[in-house]
Amino acid sequence: EEEDDDDGEEEDEDYEGEGDESDHSKKKKFVCSEKQSAAALCVGVGSFSDPDDLPGLAHFLEHMVFMGSEKYPDENGFDAFLKKHGGSDNASTDCERTIFQFDVQRKYFKDALDRWAQFFISPLMIEDAIEREVEAVDSEYQLARPSDSNRKEMLFGSLAKPGHPMGKFFWGNAQTLKYEPKEKNINTYERLRQFWKTHYSAHYMTLAVQSIETLDNLEEWVREIFSKIPNNGLQKPYFGHLTEPFSTTGFNTLYRVVPVKKIHALTITWALPPQEQFYRVKPLHYISWLIGHEGKGSILSLLRKKCWALGLFGGNSETGFEQNTTYSVFSITITLTDRKST
Question: Smallest Cα–Cα separation from 212: which of 11, 28, 34, 30?
Fold first, then answer.
């Protein structure tokens, strides 16, 4: 806490001087960002790789690697370290990738990198923590259930062809990670460690670091710390052959969904071939700008004149649900008024 107070005093000194309020604010933001360093690591595996008998295992593993390491055994010690030094962290599991990220005050960056890297070098994942963390995953799922966007995603996934990984239950909960495994005599702990050993390999990973440290320093730190991540040389999971997962009668259908929030909306979704390889030119962005235009002669201007719509947006969010190696989608969502057409 004292260190945090010192930092605040240093910032005040940096901001002394003349200038209008906006200049002062910009300078303050610059100094703050200068003091922060950040890193992100992408593991090229996600929920598509969940075993059929343990739905949600990739997401569960993302939680478990935070629970201490051989070098830093304190459970949730990394979060405590970041909190003490003005930082934050996050992680997310997508269809084909799992992303970890954090930021911290620059002077603690190397130490934070070393602690964080242990998630991928030697996480403890002790058996005693399994049950507690299953509850955390289950709590996350229960909080997400009432979300209209999450409910729509689950409906969307259920429309894929049988056998396509989109039909899997990605979240995981107490039922899939605790009760069902017990009934089937599945050892979740052993399977979790095996999943980590198979998929958390250096050749699956991409690392980015951001700091005003010199490039030479950053490269030295990265080589010193991250070269210890094991590399098993196994072939990465590939799903690109599972194309056209939504060429089904179930997909080409109108669904009327009762929302949780008080909202009326119409969403039209097209399933397209994978677009990831076109990330430099982003063709779907062009279409979304044309459709989402709100000026004279636009779709929305016409709908507003008729008092049928309040808003319209179209595009692809680039999450794994909307873009992966097997398909991409393009959606148009129109927020409707209560008015009935005559």
Answer: 34
Structure tokens at 123: 């996480």
Q: Which residues does residue 332 pair with via DSSP β-bridges, in sequence order?
A: 268, 314
CA-based diameter of the chain, in Å? 71
pLDDT, averaged in runs of 10, over the chain (342 residues) = 35 37 50 80 97 97 96 95 97 97 97 98 94 94 92 93 95 96 96 97 97 97 98 95 93 94 94 94 95 95 96 93 95 91 59
Closest CA to 104 of 130, 78, 141: 78
Percent helix, strand and coil across the chain, each rounded to 5? 45, 15, 40
Which active-site residues does the annotation give? 62
Task: Give residue 307's region: left, alpha or beta (phi > 0; psi -120 to 50).
Answer: left
CA atoms within 13 A on the CB side of 265: 22
Q: Which residues contact 118 (CB under 8 A, 6 or more apart)?
A: 69, 70, 71, 72
Taking the C-alpha atoms of residue 54 and residue 91, their distance in angstroms, rounded to an integer, is 20
From the list 37, 172, 46, 60, the residue with the least C-alpha distance to 99 is 46
Q: Which of 62, 79, 75 is nearest to 116 (CA)?
A: 79
Q: The tokens of 197 are what?
A: 């050993």
